[in-house]
């Protein structure tokens, strides 16, 4: 039996302090209010908690009435991964579009406006930006969430994003350490593995995190990935070698370390949720992200009790839990002070569309006539990325219906999608909208079918533009945010 230096009440408060749970509903649940009084410091908002910005503002105000230094976290990357605009599509392009423009000043301005909106809603902790170097174009989970494939480009934009966001008093959380870009498995489903040598990792994956640390990022999120060159036994989230020796020791990082979602199968399916949480804190994580899937009070109590039991049994050093809880509370104090002291940020609501327009790349081939009349928009839907979700609309149909009245649209997927789209077009000129065509053979076949029958087809790529440009007009947006769709539709109508 371990002799505790603190009483059971303090231990329980520390265990609650390291949790960042989600909840159901669009108002503050009674159980969350109670737990805030018992030591909970953080809550997390997901798409299910968001209806309007006014509603989110009321929700966060009700929660903050229980605790002034409350951390309200959200997974708002802008671009494809949006929670604030989950029902409409983001007002800001994502990282890949910003990387394509490669103007750090623009990136800083976009993240500043995003931070202003979050702060106005009472959200003060953003699980972003993604600092992953997209070294593997077939990566099923990162893709356009990355600024690009070059470490120096990703580094300078990661730093700019952190600086812009934190200038509004919203804490940035740079992710997914030590780098999720060279994986071919989504850690929502299983444990990805990166088999490269340590020198490659340090030269390719770490520069963006070094840049984020230099820029003052208040938090870093761990990745559920196995990197044998760093630790052959444990994935990053559970690895002392990666979180404590590398991130804290070698990189000198002193801020908060947050885990990626612990319900993801890479952790919960391999180690079990409760045991995984204990291992993560023991390895050096300070805060536990949970609630994307499990959003009930029972989960919070189970994890609280697992941490308390681990301290009492000696599995988890009491001082490690105490240190983790102290780091969470310190970030809460920073955000509270930053909220009171942040200079009023001038609103720049059009900056997202400005950035999206600058990112668009248009390639013309042949001598097809410009698009002047109604078109048929055929959107080819891949299986949704879990991080993105399936709630957020994407495409160009709505904007083209406004710009080219009489235009119609349809969605297609799988074998025979091209033939079905041709039939549905009824002879109209086609705008084919794809997302990561290079990763989906059926999608490539569909575009082949359209171009063989209608060489004047316009192709709009709203994912990673890896396939060679083709079509009478090829438009790459580097992401599927709402503003990217607007910019693409404008290019169609003026091209």
Low-pLDDT segments, ≥5 res: none
Structural class: alpha/beta
Note the overall shape. globular
Query: How much beta, percentage-wise?
Result: 5-15%
Number of strands: 14
Look at the structure and give the mean pLDDT: 94
Strand order, sheet with most strands: 2-3-4-5-6-7
What is the overall number of helices? 18
Radius of gyration, in Å, reads: 23 Å
Task: Give the helix level as a range of percent.
Answer: 40-55%
Give a short account of the largest sheet.
6 strands, parallel
Q: Span between N and C termini?
A: 74 Å
Please tell me about this protein's structure.
This protein has 495 residues and is α/β, with parallel strands linked by helices. It is 42% helix and 12% strand. The strands form three sheets. It has a six-stranded parallel β-sheet. Strand 10, helix 15 (397-403) and strand 11 (408-412) form a beta-alpha-beta unit. Helix 15 packs across helix 18. The radius of gyration is 23 Å and the shape is globular.
Provide key terms for this protein.
single chain; 495 residues; alpha/beta; six-stranded parallel β-sheet; six-stranded mixed β-sheet; 18 helices; 14 strands; 42% helix
């Amino acid at each position: 039996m371990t002799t505790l230096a603190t009483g059971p009440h303090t231990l329980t408060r520390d265990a609650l302090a390291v949790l960042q749970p989600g909840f159901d509903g669009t108002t503050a649940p009674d159980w969350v209010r109670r737990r805030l009084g018992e030591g909970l410091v953080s809550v997390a908002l997901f798409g299910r908690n968001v209806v309007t910005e006014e509603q989110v503002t009321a929700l966060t105000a009700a929660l903050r009435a229980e605790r002034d230094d409350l951390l309200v976290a959200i997974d708002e990357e802008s671009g494809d991964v949006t929670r604030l605009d989950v029902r409409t599509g983001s007002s800001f392009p994502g990282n890949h579009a910003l990387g394509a423009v490669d103007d750090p000043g623009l990136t800083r301005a976009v993240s500043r406006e995003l931070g202003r909106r979050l702060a106005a809603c009472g959200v003060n902790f953003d699980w972003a930006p993604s600092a992953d170097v997209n070294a593997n174009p077939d990566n099923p989970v990162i893709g356009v969430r990355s600024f690009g494939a070059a470490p120096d480009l990703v580094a300078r934009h990661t730093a700019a994003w952190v600086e812009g966001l934190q200038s509004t008093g919203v804490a940035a959380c740079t992710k997914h350490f030590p780098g999720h870009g060279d994986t071919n498995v989504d850690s929502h489903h299983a444990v990805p593995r990166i088999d490269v040598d340590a020198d490659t990792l340090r030269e390719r994956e770490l520069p963006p995190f070094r840049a984020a640390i230099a820029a003052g990022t208040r938090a870093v999120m761990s990745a559920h990935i196995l990197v044998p060159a760093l630790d052959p036994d444990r994935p990053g989230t559970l690895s002392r070698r990666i979180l404590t020796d590398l991130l804290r020791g070698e990189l000198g990082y002193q801020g908060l370390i947050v885990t990626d979602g612990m319900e993801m199968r890479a952790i919960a399916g391999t180690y079990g949720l409760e045991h995984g949480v204990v291992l993560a804190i023991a390895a050096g994580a300070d805060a536990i992200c949970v609630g994307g899937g499990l959003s009930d009070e029972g989960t919070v109590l189970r994890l609280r009790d697992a941490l308390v039991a681990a301290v009492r049994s000696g599995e988890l050093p009491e001082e490690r839990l105490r240190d983790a809880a102290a780091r969470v509370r310190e970030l809460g104090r920073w955000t509270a002070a930053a909220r009171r002291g942040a200079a009023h940020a001038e609103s720049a609501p059009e900056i997202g569309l400005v950035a999206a327009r600058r990112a668009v790349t248009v390639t013309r081939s042949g001598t097809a006539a410009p698009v002047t009349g109604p078109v048929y928009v055929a959107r080819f839907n891949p299986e949704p990325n879990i991080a993105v979700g399936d709630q957020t609309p994407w495409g160009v149909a709505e904007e083209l219906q406004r710009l080219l009245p009489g235009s119609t649209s349809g969605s297609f997927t799988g074998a025979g999608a091209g033939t079905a789209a041709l039939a549905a077009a009824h002879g109209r000129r086609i705008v084919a909208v794809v997302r990561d065509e290079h990763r989906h053979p059926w999608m490539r076949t569909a575009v082949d079918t359209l171009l063989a029958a209608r060489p004047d087809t316009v192709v709009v790529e709203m994912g990673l533009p890896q396939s060679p440009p083709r079509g009478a007009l090829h438009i790459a947006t580097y992401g599927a945010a709402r503003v990217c769709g607007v910019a693409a539709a404008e290019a169609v109508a003026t091209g």
